[in-house]
Amino acid sequence: MESARPHxxxxxxxxxxxxxxxxxxxxxxxxxxxxxxxNAAVVLNAxxxxxxLWEWNWNSVAAACTDHLGPAGYGxxxxxxxxxxxxxxxxxxxxxxxxxxYQPVSxxxxxxxxxxQQFAAMVGACHQAGVRVYVDAVVNHMAGTxxxxxxxxxxxxxxSGYSYPAVPYGNGDFHHPGDNCPTSGAITDWNNESQxxxxxxxxxxxxxxxxxxxxxxxxxxxxxxxxxxxxxxRVDAVKHIRKDDFAAILGKLNxxxxxxxxxxxAQEIFDGASNPALQARAYTxxxxxxxxxxxxxxxxxxxxxxxxxxxxxxWNLDAPxxxxxxxxxxxxxxxxxxxxxxxxxxxxxLANYFALAYPHGKPSVYDSFxxxxxxxxxxxxxxxxxxxxxxxxxxxxxxRSTGIKGMVGWANAARPVTTVADFxxxxxxxxxxxxxxxxxxxxxxxxxxxxxxxxxGLADGQYCxxxxxxxxxxxxxxxxxTVSGGRATVTIPADNAVAVHVxxxxxxxxxxxxxxxxxxxxxxxxxxxxxxxTTFTVTATPAAGQDVYVVGSIPELGSWAPANAVRLxxxxxxxxxxxxxxxxxxxxxxxFIKVTAGGAVTWESGANRxxxxxxxxxxxxxxxxxxxxxxxxxxxxFNATVTTSYGQNVFVVGNVAALGGWNPANAVALSxxxxxxxxxTVNLPPNxxxxxxYVKKNPDGSVTWESGANRxxxxxxTGTRSNTDxxx
Length: 728
Hints:
single chain, 4 domains
């Protein structure tokens, strides 16, 4: 069983992209292609925000990553289903309706969005821009029996209702009436789990996922995508797959190439079922779930009174915040009118600002094409292939607007703080709140500008409004907000918002104590063609709440600005590391720093460190943070073999503060990456008697304690400690 977790912040691995190979005609893609090293290290953005570029073609997604999403700080882009689907030049619903892509005929990566080569190039371009790629995966079913005779796929593949030779799938690979499906084929009772998981959704041929051969072919398709660099999946129609079947499929997947971790999983569990087994929170053991209830609640608030947003924790949402992929809309919902869409104007924009600001789930921003018919095709050529995105008119491009880009930066700055403070209701349609000492936002969903005084949580000084502009080295391109005594009097324009955060202040050049000892050296003119993969490794002992960074004299190292420094990922113990592409044959000055969540910077002592990058290849830098004292904690690993039910997670809790002081609410979460072994490493004080137990937290919030006496051990004076246990 796998359970998705938020992406680690700024983890760096060498990226491998599979060779751009085209699957031979009629040949199944059942395993990942052998990857070819791209010899390029990438740094993926430390962000939970996803841009959903639904039904954009691969060339347009690549350009968006390079020009907009990466520089704005998006953590991922979600793309449409890439497998070969039916091509419907004529149908009762028009020419090439959008839903074609949800009817697979093979697992070849030849679709209306582009070729396999173009898909691989898109993934590479997005990674180089710092953006992960999540694929909309259709694995519950194939195309079905209702298509006109002679219908083929976009790559010319032939098929019939229960025969897909290009995979291959045959008659025995599908559910049939009288087999596992207790009806004549269709789902008649949407609260009957057997029907929902084994009968046909909209006459689409339902795969027999109880069979290991079917699971392996599905996993082979997903592993092929992982082999091309894909980082995760939005999985379509998961409600219609048995939970244990889907868990078995996930168990066959490889780790991602860019970060070496389990692929991210967001499951589509359509809401409305009264059967608890078919509700979204019952599926969180296999990954995150889309939160339809949140999207519908946002529509209700922004078309009613946004003061209701103060009560989000009391809404009837699909699952806890930690387990959801949050959205304002998606392709299904916007056409049904149950959520906001681009047709709702400022309400839609403001709802997206709120979703980026409010700490619920992993937020996404949706961009697609405009439509007047719910089955309308995206703009395409005469063969049905989607043409390049041209923003405005036929395409919506909210993801690249100044305000949304500003709020992505806001969300990233606020990310360490997961709670809202000082939620202020000026009136029923004007609100404000802040996330700790990191960021503040005010939203005005009325037709009249409103001036009010808000508690911001921010340090005193001037900040740039990221809705109307950006921060520069000399000022702000948009409005400004002045904080005094932690409060600010702000005029929020009609049907608009004002938002500020710690990383958007006029003038970003620091002059801290123990700052660099010489003026920064200008970087070489021009952009070097050749780059050197430079790996910085430092031994450091940051305090609780501090991260370790490297900052230096060239733009790739932040040009001496701590706000633009490169975060070093923890490697275990006191070791931190990151790989950065630097220009060749260039003199570099640098230092290591420690930064708190509030932005406080501690520079290491001594003179600037220096080196000159070589003319090619790679270059290692290994140092010790100057000014550190010897670590006074013991890195203690907990490794527990625990079998869980769907939606359960495992924690360790104990008698010391680092283990929550016996309070399950403060217990330490264990990772299920090696399920059924759950693991975590905790820094504990030396020479200390420790008592602990494991607990399971259930989807409804209740806690199950393991039986027996407290487990005990004493930490050593130095070194590390490992505990290997089994649930009692």
